[in-house]
Amino acid sequence: MRALVYQGPRLLTMEDQEVPVPGVDEVLLRVRAVGICGSEIEGYLGFNSLRVPPLVMGHEFTGEIISTGPTKQSVPEVGRLVTVNPLLSCGDCVFCRAGMAHVCGQRKLIGAHRPGAFAEYVLVPAQAIIPLPPTVDATIGALSEPLAVALHAVNLGQIKSAHGVVVWGAGSIGLLAICAARLAQPAHLIAVDTNAARLEAARVAGATAVFDARETHVVDEIRHLLSDVAHTVVLDAVGRTVTRQSAVAAAGPAGRVIFLGLHDKETPLEINAVIRNEVQMQGSYAYTMPEFRHAVTLLAEGRVPTGPWLEVRDLSQGAESFAELVDRPGVASKIILEP
Ligand SMILES: [Zn+2]
Ligand SMILES: [Zn+2]
């Protein structure tokens, strides 16, 4: 089978590999669509210790059921289009038993700890499979995982209709966060980015106002616009020092900041201002299985508009697509590859 293999920083090659054989409780899928994730771009650049070459990455995917190894679990019929929760946990620790498998200390990711879906076939655990409703096609289904990431952050934000919401970063996660936050019908839904095309996509997704982050007084302007709400929820989908600091400032008194972008390892924050303003700060990582299923339902309901932000290409264009997302990020913030 054809597979896109990460060989080292900035090096991806197409290789011919054996089609894997499903073991106990495993299912073989023929991959139909697989998205390139921001975390994989960090991996591609060699900045992510989870991704050790040689590795087939790819954790945002859909595929058809081909065959199943020995198992007592129920598996959808052969040919059924499914997606997969790629975050695998031990199922046994205090966190797993409390319904928080996403913070399990033993968690493993398909496409990092085991081969992922940038290939014609991928092996997945039967229990991670989620069948797609008929209204979700292979491409849209590949948005389930990033939408679940966005949905988890929005859920932690506990957004109400009286709140203001600011989403910092209108890449694919920010855009999907806007789609998810919109469901709570907040009084303001503001997107901030430096890319005009991405801000336009944010408007289409439901942002009520957009700001160019390079404007000098962008935080003041956002606070001015939010002067009629008592609570603001800011989601930082970027994770750079400047966006984290801006997010805390934009939250204002009694605000809440959800950090989900992973970029800079450390960020100095003005904690005295956080204390005096009673700003709540919360990290957000991945998703729970119920949130993943909810993301699939939202896609089936057509809650995520497609547009130029979403681009589909052949797997053979994988290497150039990674390079493009790093060197010349353009209108397309999510590139989906088809093996
Ligand atoms: Zn991802
Ligand atoms: Zn666990």
From TrEMBL:
Protein name, as recorded: Galactitol-1-phosphate 5-dehydrogenase
Signal sequence, start to end: none
Q: Does the keyword Oxidoreductase apply?
A: yes
Does Iron appear among the keywords? no
One example of the protein's molecular function in GO is: oxidoreductase activity
Give the record's keywords alphabetically: Metal-binding, Oxidoreductase, Zinc
Domain Enoyl reductase (ER): from-to ranges: 8-337
TM region positions: none
Q: Which Pfam families match?
A: ADH_N, ADH_zinc_N
Show the InterPro entries listed in the entry: ADH-like_C, ADH-like_N, ER, GroES-like_sf, NAD(P)-bd_dom_sf, Zn_alcohol_dh
- Tell me where on the tree of life, at the top rank, the source sits: Bacteria
| Native source species | Tengunoibacter tsumagoiensis
PANTHER family assigned to the protein according to its UniProt record, in alphabetical order: L-THREONINE 3-DEHYDROGENASE (PTHR43401:SF2)
Taxonomic lineage is: Bacteria, Bacillati, Chloroflexota, Ktedonobacteria, Ktedonobacterales
